[in-house]
Amino acid sequence: MIAIVGMIIVTVAVIGGYLMEHGNLFVLFQPAEILIIFGAALGGFVVSSPPKVIRAVVRATLAMFKSVHLSKKDYIEALLLLNGIFYKIRQQGLVAVENDIDAPEESSLFNTYPRILKNERAVALITDTLRTVMSTSIVPHELEALIDTELEICQEEMLVPSKSVTFVADALPGLGIVAAVLGVVLTMGKISEPPEVLGHSIGAALVGTFMGVLFCYGYVGPVGKNLEHMASEEIQYLYIFKVALIAFVSGAAPKVAVEFGRRVVPSDVRPTFAEMEEALKQAKK
Fold it and tell me: What end-to-end distance do the CA atoms of the chain give, in Å?
């Protein structure tokens, strides 16, 4: 929702300033230039993007407009899930969570937190890490290196929508110039017309440059940056699982491992020590 508010502000500021100088809005409406600029931008995006990238961009953009962001509650639930897994392992051994990690969608531990269960990357990170610990004799520092490699790959994948949208944004000013040049070419064919006709034709051509630059820096570019922030937020979320899991595998008590995870939660949504204590007490009840 906040993205839509930002776009409205951009539109009101640009159009409002134009109208304050008694500009004619009808001049800015140039369907041919719109077709040239955005048709070429869309075509370039399709040419440069395999189907999976196009799907990823659509999903990420829809999520951005829906304001799907992680809250303090999401982080508390993540830490509570880890705490439940750690205590079960500490009390009953690694074998006790075998069914949970083999079929998390049927696990009472995971089903307590349905939002986490919907996060495929988070579930895979937890289950794959525990499977590795159960089936191998991997040492903590090797496990940490393995998870870091996985997170690097995840980050690259999650940044793909942002990079693709930014690519389109970077192309828009150039495509605006293309539309303007075509408009000038058409104007040259009217060179014998009166100044009023030539002025209107040149003005229409310049609208292409205006639209290309405006949509690059006012709309599409900011969307790409927003998608980048969303990817960074998701990586930070996955990072707490990594830190808590490594701490537990290294020998830390469940509560201490959860505290390791709490400390790396972003400061604006980090639960306080007291809030986490209260959440753990409620979970036990």
Answer: 37
Does the residue 221 lie in any domain? Answer: yes
Gap between the Cα atoms of 189 and 145, Å rounded: 66
Tokens of 50: 């395999």
* 46 within a domain of the structure (yes/no): no
Is residue 197 one of the residues assigned to a domain? no
45 is a domain residue = no
CA-closest candidate to residue 148, choices 140, 252, 160: 140
- Pair of tokens at residue 202: 């040149």
pLDDT in tens, 218-267: 999 999 999 999 999 999 999 999 999 999 999 999 999 999 999 999 99
**Dist CA 37 CA 14 (whole Å):** 19
The number of beta carbons lying within 10 Å of the beta carbon of residue 114 is 10
Q: CB–CB of 125/150 below 8 Å?
A: yes
Q: Structural domain of residue 144, as residue ranges?
A: 2-23+71-161+206-284
Which residue reads 């897994």 in tokens?
85
Task: Kindly report the pTM of this predicted structure.
Answer: 0.84
Closest CA to 101 of 219, 206, 214, 245: 245
Question: Contact, 140 vs 163, CB < 8 A?
Answer: no
